[in-house]
What we know:
The structure holds two protein chains of two kinds. By secondary structure, chain A is mostly helical. In chain A, 70% of the residues lie in helices and 0% in strands. Chain A is built from eleven helices and no strands. Chain A has helices at residues 2-9, 14-35, 45-54, 66-84, 101-121, 126-157, 162-171, 180-194, 218-243, 252-276, 282-311. In chain A, helix 2 (14-35) crosses helix 10, helix 5 packs antiparallel against helix 6 and helix 6 packs parallel to helix 11. The radius of gyration of chain A is 19 Å and the shape is globular. Chain B has a single domain, classed as Rossmann fold (3-Layer(aba) Sandwich). Chain B has helices spanning 2-14, 28-36, 71-80, 92-96, 127-149, and strands spanning 17-22, 49-50, 59-63, 66-67, 86-90, 106-108, 118-120. In chain B, the strands form two sheets. A five-stranded parallel sheet of chain B has the order 2-1-3-5-7. In chain B, strands 4-6 form a two-stranded antiparallel sheet. In chain B, helix 2 (28-36) links the parallel strand 1 and strand 2 (49-50). The longest helix of chain B is centred in the last third of the chain and has 23 residues, at 127-149. The radius of gyration of chain B is 15 Å and the shape is globular. Classes of the chains: A mainly alpha, B alpha/beta. Chain A binds chain B through residues 29, 33, 36-42, 44-45, 47-52, 54-59, 127, 205-206, 209-210, 213-218, 221, and chain B through 7-8, 10-12, 14-15, 39-40, 42, 44-45, 47, 51-53, 55-56, 58, 80, 82-84. Bound molecules: iron/sulfur cluster. The site of iron/sulfur cluster (SF4) has 13 residues of chain B, from helix 2 and helix 4. The site of iron/sulfur cluster has 13 residues of chain B, from helix 2 and helix 4.
Amino acid sequence: MLKQLFILLVFPGFLFLLTSGLLAEFIDRRLYARLQNRQGPPWFQPLADFIKLLGKEDIVPQEADTTVFRLMPLVALSATVAAFFYIPLWGTEAMFSFNGDIIVVLYLLMLPTLCFFLGGWYSRSVFSSIGAVRVLTQLFAYEVPLFICILASSLLANTWSLSGMAAFYSKHPGYWLFNLIGFGIAFISLLGKLEKVPFDIPEAETEIVAGSFTEYSGRLLAFFRLTIDIELIVGTSLLAAVFLPFGFGVGPYIGFVIYILKVLLLVALVSLSRTIFARLRIDQMINLCWKYLAPLAFLQVLLNLIAKGVMVK
Amino acid sequence: MGKLTHIVNWARIKSPWVLHFNTGACNACDIEIIAALTPRYDLERFGVQLKGTPRHADILLCSGPVTRQVECRLKMIYEQMPEPKFVVAVGTCACSGGVFDGCYNVKSGINAAIPVSAYIPGCPASPKAIIDGVVKLLQSLEAEEEKKEK
Ligand code: SF4
């Protein structure tokens, strides 16, 4: 009981996610600043932002639905944290796993996006409504390629659990190379999920103020921001577990270092893409996802089916 | 309790998010504010970020005198900001009405409509002066905090 509580709250649960999420935001912002040839924020910046927002007044607009408005940040945060427990990090075994947990993780990772939509929609302000609609439109564009890619690599491993996939790929080293197309597509979709440039269309502060977060202030905004930071960690961990499945069998300490390196690499890629791309329009984004990413994802499925027929007996 | 407020105040001083609002300036002060926020001056060093919505902002940067038309809007934006909030008047016009003071359509400086925490004179105030003003505001908050401790 005590051990489970420790797992949930401290390591690798909430506290670990909190610190790593804030650290990831710092690395992202610092790298972004360095790439723009400026100094960037000090290391405690995300923490200071978080504490400051916790200490501020939170206003609920008169028009808004109070329950939904207040509940959404907490639901988003808990769903993201819950998804983390099913992802294998530095061993092939996740904290909890069962056959079919891929679906659960993908579903739990979809919940925050849905919460952004509901929170924005029930704020009843013009900007947040537009932001909310964009959140949902974007969700339908990137979610399908992401699902297909992750399912394609589980097809090769012939299992429905993330831990099982990690075990398969560490038993058959080199097989992850089949999933390289899928990795690229999943990374692009992850940018959409995290609402980072070039897919920060729902937040687009130059067009619609702050999208679905326009009416959020104080503690509620702090939880939403924390959700996005933790989503960055959970999303990159998922990609690392599915598409970069090596270094699982080397013991907890080296394994942990390798895991951190993988996540750092992905976070660095996110900030790099944030620097070099500009924001797409929503229709361009949907075109990209449905015309190019989805067919490529199907190509990945085909490739994996052939590979499975030829190589895995 | 004392420790907790100390930490919250530290966070407040380290993370000022600003909102920029033109209350009737000739546009020169706005250009200087925007210039201060560019990578060249890198205000993110101090944790400053430009926000689009009053709900996220801690500091309201106002430029220009308060015209009669903008007065109620300025008050509305001020009221939409969550506590604790501060107002900085950028430019001579914002401080006192400047060259526009006494015009039929102008009320005078920002403090005619809402309380102001810091004044940055200059026509237009240069980016360096704006950064200096914001940092001084933060330092005065810090000093106030220390006085409270004693
Ligand atoms: S202070 Fe000068 S530059 Fe600024 S708004 Fe007034 S007239 Fe324009």
